[in-house]
Amino acid sequence: MPTPVKKFTCLRCGACCRTFQSENSAKPGSFVSPITYLLNEQHLSLYDWEVKGFREELAKINAGRKVLPSVAFIDLKNKRLIAVNYTLDGENCPFLKDNMCIIYNKRPIACRQFPCVPSQADVLFNYRTFHYNINDLCGFERIDNTLRKRLEEIKDDEKAIKKVLEERYGEAYHYNVRAHRFNKVLSRFINELEQKGEVKLARRGDNLKDIPSKIKGFGIVNVSDLNKDLFFGE
Ligand code: SF4
Ligand code: SF4
Known about the structure:
The model is unreliable at 123-127 (pLDDT under 50). The chain is 36% helix and 15% strand. It has one domain (15-222).
């Protein structure tokens, strides 16, 4: 008999907001995928279009915190960085009060996805399949083993994995599906720009040891400013 998987219930322990994990293992100043470069360590990841609203919320509470570009394409042709992700600096969130999020209805997509976070390999390299890592930072995941057991039973059956994740995480799962779709569209868009010769991207493996000094003078644009039709989805 298959292991019944418990539905995710947030314990309101605040662990995910009090101590951010670094969202990827690459070090700032290196490539996180063949064409995306890490400018600042990612703690709380923000899509470029989320930054303005998030900064406004930080200003309201005088948080004294910064939002920095984190992941960008390096466009050698136009001498600019094309930012796809930003991050809150520091390793905790100033919006956590008494273990509650005070901007709950405006919280970033990264928070809406948690703890249903697809693996880094999926996000960065392979938009076709959906891999999943259980997030051990989450208080609920630490005490409930039913998903682990069920995933063991269904192994690589992608359809069954998606069904189980949807049952467990509900809305958080759907945010991940949309993020997954968005990444595909973004990837297609940047490839098309490159094919048309409108950008020339720096790539991991190119002889680019001088990148940190080279990009110092580069301007920065947001990818959503280059294409207003990039759409995260309802
Ligand atoms: S915005 Fe809210 S949910 Fe997100 S990390 Fe901060 S306190 Fe937690
Ligand atoms: S760590 Fe998990 S259980 Fe705790 S507040 Fe965050 S989502 Fe909820």
